[in-house]
Amino acid sequence: MTTAQFHSPASLADAVALLSDLGARPLAGGTDLIVQMRAGRAAAPAIVDLKRIPGLSGVRRSAEGGFIIGAATPCTALKADAALAAAWPGVVEGANLIGSVQVRNRATLAGNLCNASPAADSVPALITAGARCKVVGPAGEREMAVADIPVGPGRTSLAPGEVVSEIVLPAQSASGADAYLRLTPRTEMDIAIVGAGAWIELAADGSCTAAQVALGAVAPTARLVEAAGAALVGTRLDEAALAALSAACQAAAEPIDDKRGSAAYRIAMAGVLARRAVLKAAERAAARKKA
Amino acid sequence: MARVILPGAVANELFGGREEVEVPGRTLFAVVHALEVQGPGFEERAEGGGLAMAVDGVLAEDWSTPVGPDSEVLVVSRVAGG
Amino acid sequence: MSRLHVTTTVNGDAQEFLCDPGATLLDVLRGPLGLTGSKEGCGSGDCGACTVTLDGAMVCSCLVLAAEAEGRRITTIEGMAEGGELHPLQQQFLKFGALQCGFCTPGVLVAAKALLDHNPDPTESEARYWLAGNLCRCTGYDKIIRAVMAAAAELRQDQSSKERSPA
Amino acid sequence: MNAPTGKLANEDGYRVVGTRPVRLDGVDKVTGKAIYGGDFVAPGMLHGAILRSPHAHARIRSIDASAAAALPGVKAVVTGADMPDDAALKAADRTGDTMAIARHSMALDKALFDGHAVAAVAATSPEVAQAALALIRVDYEVLRPVLSIEAALAPDAPLLHPGHVTRGERPGKAEPSNVVGVTTHAKGDAAAGMAQADEVFEGTFSTPPIHQGYIEPHACVAQWNADGQAQIWASSQGQFMIRDQVGKILGVALANLRVVPLEIGGGFGGKTRVFLEPVAMLLSRKAGRPVRLAMTRGEVFRASGPAPGSRTVIRMGARRDGTITAVELDIVLTSGAFAHDESGPALLSATMPYTIENLAFTGRAVFMNMTTVHAYRAPAAPQAVFAVESAIDELAQRLGLDPLDMRIRNVARPGDPGFSGLPLGEVGFLEALEAAKAHPHWTAPLPKGQSRGVGAGAWGNYGGASTAEVSVADDGTVLVAEGNPDIGGSRAGMAMMAAETLGIDYEQVRVIVADTNSIGYSMQTGGSRTTFATGMAVIQACEKVIADMRHRAAMVWGVEDAEVDWRDGAAWCGSGENAGRSLTMKAIARRADQSGGPIAATGALMAQGYLPGVGVHICDLSVDEETGVTTITRYTAVQDVGKAIHPDYVEGQMQGGAVQGIGWALNEEYVWNAAGAMDNPGFLDYRMPVASDLPMIEPVMVEKPSPVHPFGVKGVGEAPIVPPLAAVANAVSRAIGKRMTHLPLSPVKVQAAAAEG
Predict the structure, then answer these.
(1) Is the peptide bond before D744 cis (omega within 30 degrees of 0)?
(2) Helix pair angle (D381-399, D724-736), 10° resolution
(3) N or C: where does chain B have the smaller number of CB atoms within 10 Å of the terminal CB?
(4) Which CATH number is associated with domain D26-34+463-607?
(5) pTM for the whole thing?
(6) Is pLDDT above 60 for D609?
(7) Are the beta carbons of D629 and A272 separated by less than 8 Å?
């Protein structure tokens, strides 16, 4: 692990400058990066710690009533933010399934996103929430959908020197709610064999007015399944609609066989978990309507 | 001559498959020595703790235990734990 | 490769050390600082035996770069007892026999203290999920959880008695 | 050399034995002061590192370490050529164990598993050592690996050890093969017995290799001086074991090889042999300085001694009333790269709790291109008993019998002929089964969606050689030195047995684990022997001290020794003018110099008459049939413990063993890729149970005392891992109505089985 330089810049501009030389890696929580460095799976000749840049840690409300989450905000801080946890329980529970409390006191949403593991626990719910992120780099700032960041296992669409500085969640709709579920052999300290995020919006009569469903660990990246959401809109989430949802998810799944699960199992579980995540989100949406 | 009964694996490996052997000896020390002559390697295995011996149904760690002319010596393979 | 000079606070004492940019906090605690109470069970954040607190939050010190310690407050197992007086958690672990080989115990104790600082009255399930990051292979966790719950009760009782009769 | 007699301090029961005092080494362990393998630092110590083969099976054509040796800071480089040659290792012991351990610790001409050590360096820092490894060039000729039992037994299988002939094979039948050895056991007439059965179950069971999972990686420091004297500081299950094995491998006289025991961070049998010590010694001799060698977690998985995988074919016949008429069992265990044949203990343990008329067992171990297996807590018993207890459960269901009643019907009782044919001693198999049946858990109504499984299992335990020394200080306090590393509170047990024998308080006794130059030989901590055998040696030494102190008191009072009684930590005069007077230990010890000199005695013996331990576990669980995820909801572990000296730590053995068994049943397994490299060498993808996976494990101690041990002790450490595989598998099988025969019962497998219906 030959890391020659460690920097902890006090501004984003300094960080971007440092990150533009080849091989420099941003460090937020480090719970993926440091493991890969020690195992020799990631070369990091220079480390740029983002945690001393003011404004990058913490959750702020956006003008539209949504939430702006700094790139250096640890997952446990999301759970501690009551407003965020109430508005986006799915995003917060996804972030708080990563590793252990020790890991979640360090790991960040931006890090989980940019590590680009197909099984990243926080990404499916971010996608169904329509989250966006601010990217800062040598060419200045730009905004993009969270879904467009990961492009394959361990690969993102970020240009060299670019870093995600914020993740932005829209305001939650009056009768919408989200949920994230994952399938793991252990109750903690595990990696999703399959993950499923869902966002559901219900009309006064209980019928579904909008729905987003995304799957984790069944494709090179977390994946929004339009057909799954579409199968629910206009229905009362009855058995037929849920069956169509499951079928759509199974069709969208292109998993691999690996030490954690077989492709066949993942395809089957894609349907099962998506269904359960939808029902959990719907239950929360119904509860919000009444509250 | 004491009658010695050997476990299958030891019989096959050291005594040409004979599971019962007659040997002279008034103590287990003598019996073990006599068994070594017929099956070289037996003494080392017994000393290493891999084999235990019972004289007339009683396990004896102490080889000074007397062995009568018509005694039965049962050789048992022993297992250490984890 | 130039080494970094870091100043930090460990268990309330000011500490300085030189470290490679890639060195972990665990390497420094166990090496130059001679605090071998934090243990390396895996080096990948999967066992919790290296748990310390960093500015009050419990973390795996094998997944923190030593350079990140600059200006921060670190507590390790060696800082848990005050002088000769064991912390209630340490006492209850001994009373319940909540350790056998003891290798995971430092990490478990630091994590358990962080739990009770965060939640003085945890349910059994809350305690089990909080401690899920600390692997133990000897005890099957039963006596660890019972000792944590007993220490929590004792601390709550001390707290309430302190409130009733402030010193 | 006779076994100690040991008297009760008072007739109505024990004063110290059975209480729950705080352990003596407790404060060090809860404050982080205790020194484990990787914590020890010797002055001038170098840091070692090992280069390991990335290939599971390869010939080593050449090793060029010249660049590494030239790297500034590198002080020594060793390869297999630095180890003694085959002839010297064979001369050390004809069983071949020394050769196997030496060649596993450092390859000679062939790399036989992914992770096999091929070279090692010692340098002034870990970073320099790692840099040096990267400069070592090894020319491998990659060979086809053997990665399964089937592959090992295939007629065209590459032979891992061409010269090896199967041990225990009938003469003339043995020809070179990957079969390490074969063991058989027959009783009565299995075919006839099977014919009498009303119901016959036949099944094939398998378990993958799994790891003991101790959280402390192997670590040691070795110093081999120019005058031939050496010291090793290491965590292990036996400092005497290290001395024996390193002494045989390197040809060092035992008196020249002082091994100092450090605290051990879990072993479970996996630290009952050496891996690093011989290499650290070679590096130290070349460098002239102490060398620390430690494994990373990945190295522990790839290159230490996991438990063997198994394939068991079983046929079991039973009559309508549940009597088992015959069992035919054929078990094949993996041995890994070198010879470690656990088929003996597998056959011994398979049906140990039961007396069955007709048995026909065969056991074999096979070489495989995987790290050499080694003992894991009741070695090979869980694998064999998984098949037997599953078969019993299946037959009980088919015959409509209560599963515990069926086990009780076949239970082995004292006096029944055991495996060796010798009559069983005061075994507590029946008492444990009845205690399980009487326990509220067995008859508690099952919540909806849950199912209940039961499993029993025993382990033979062991006694063997132990030495302990007891001395009395001037103030009457007592010091015990013994030779068994304290993994689970055994120091406390020794202090309690000493205090009980001497009739004094526990707090007046201190116990240390001494190094190999400070105490007589003690067999290592393992085989569930320590409290039984080393306890006996401590008691014997205390009895000698009592006899000495009674003699001194007799001299003071001018009476015969026989006139002096020993009670409540004091000598009592029985006759003459001083009748009724007493002298405390303190009073006697203060004038020790005037009555013959220091008070000290040694207990050294071969502990005999050890009795097996048995466990009966009841497991409630729910299975989410859609996903295959299993959740343990209630677990009770019943065990005959003889007499619990320190109940906390006996319960701890029962709870820890049960949870290791649960992990074995549900999620733990070695996974390899096609090339034979381990795919999950870490605690993320090698899934051991975490705290949130489990309920409380309720321990139920059945105390049927051993008549041989002064305080009734039976070994307890290994029996608790034997029942859980079947207890969990039986519960899952009942939940989904399908016999689960291949561990682990991961969500993928259980979901597939449930979906088949």
Answers:
(1) yes
(2) 40
(3) N
(4) 3.30.365.10
(5) 0.97
(6) yes
(7) no
